[in-house]
Amino acid sequence: MSALVCAFADQAARAEALASSLKAPFSLIDLHRFPDGEGLPTVGPPAETVLVYCSLDRPDAKIMPLALACDAWRRAGVRRLVLVAPYLAYMRQDKVFAAGQPVSRDVIGEILGCRFDRIVTVEPHLHRTRDIGAVFGTEVTTLSAARVLADAIGVRGEPPLLIGPDEESARWTAAIADLMDAPHLVLSKTRLGDRRVELSVNEPSALAGRRVVLVDDICSSGATLAEAARLALRCGARSVEAGVVHALFDHSAAEALKAAGLTRIVSTDSCPHPTNVAPLASLLADALAGEIAS
Predict the structure, then answer these.
(1) Residue 212 — φ and ψ, nearest 5°?
(2) 186 strand-pairing partners
(3) Which of 150, 157, 233, 246 is the most interior residue, by most CB within 10 Å?
C-alpha cells in the first residue's frame, strides 16, 4: 500500500471525508486509556506514506497520543508521515509577552517538526511569523480558506459589507471581499485582556443600513466578535453575521454572541462545532493529491 489516511476516533468522520476525496484507504488509530490517564495508541498496517488527520483544537489531550503514534509508524517502516492539521494550536504565543512565559509557537514547532515530513494546515495564526517552515524545521503547507468561507457566507442579493476585527486581519478580509466582489473595512482593536477588547471604526456611516459580516480566522472567547457586533449595530447596521475559519468558542460564548446581536455564524469544519457549514475536505485533498500519486 503506497498511502493511506489515518485518524483517531474523535476525528474519523472528517478524516474519512478526506480519504474519500483522495480515493485513498482509511485506517482508524485505536487509543487505549489506562486507569491513570496514560494513552496507548495502536496503528494499523503501515503504508509508505501515512496522512495523519489530527486537527489540534483542544490540543493538550491530542499531542501526546499523536507523538506516540508517530513512533509506532516509524517502527513499522513508514517512510513519510504527513500531518493534516486544519487547525494548528499554540501559534498565538509567538513571542514572550510577559516575563516568565514561553514562546509556545516554537515549542509546538519542535514537537511536530521532528516527527513529520510535511505539515498541511489552514489559515494558521501567522501575524508575526514570516517563515513557518523555519519555525517547524520541516515542509509546511498553509492553505487559504478564503474561497470556502466566501461561499459559505454567500451574497444573497446585495453584497455584504465585510469587516475585519483588527489591522492584522486586513489582508485576509480583503481576499474574501475580492472573491465576493464586496466592500470591506477593518476596525481598530485594543486588547484589554483575554475576554475584553476595545474597538473603533473610522467610517461609522459606511455601516448604516448594511448587512454586515464580520470575518476572522479564530473565534475563541468570542469577545472580539461580540464587541464588533455591538459596534456595528450602534453604527446602524441592518444585520450582523460572522464567518470564521476556526470555531473554538463554547456554548456560553455562543449565547453571548447571540445576545450581542449576531444573527448567524458560519465556520469551516476545521474544528467540530455547531456552526460548521463549510467542509475543508476538497481544499485539503487538492493540496495532498501529490502524496497519493507519488
Answers:
(1) -100, 135
(2) 164
(3) 246
- What is the rounded distance in angstroms from the CA atom of residue 290 to the CA atom of residue 294? 6
Q: Please give the C-alpha separations between residue 200 and each of 163, 181, 186, in angstroms, as whole numbers.
A: 12, 24, 9
Ordered domains of the chain (ranges, CATH): 3-144+279-293 (3.40.50.2020), 146-269 (3.40.50.2020)
Q: How many CB atoms lie within 10 A of CB 15?
A: 27
**Cα–Cα distance measured from residue 111 to residue 68, given in angstroms and rounded to the nearest whole number:** 12
Phi then psi dihedrals of residue 99, to 5 deg: -55, 135
Q: What is the pLDDT of residues 116-156, one digit of tens each?
A: 999 999 999 877 777 888 889 999 999 999 999 999 999 88
DSSP H stretches of helix in 161-280: 170-180, 223-234, 251-259
d(CA 292, CA 3): 6
Question: Which residue from 256, 54, 265, 255 is spatially nearest to 149, judged by alpha carbons?
Answer: 265
HEC string for 148-174 = HHHHHHCCCCCCCEEEECCHHHHHHHH
Count the Cβ atoms, other than its own, within 10 Å of residue 185: 18
Cross-strand partners of 243? 215, 266
**pLDDT, position 200:** 85
**Do the beta carbons of residue 121 and residue 140 sit within 8 Å?**
yes
What is the pTM (predicted TM-score) of this model?
0.93
Residue 294 is which amino acid?
S
The tally of CA atoms less than 13 A away on the side-chain side of residue 63 is: 16
Q: Give the CB-side neighbour count of residue 288, counting CA atoms within 13 A.
A: 35
- Determine the distance from the C-alpha atom of residue 217 to the mean position of all C-alpha atoms in its chain, rounded to a whole number: 7
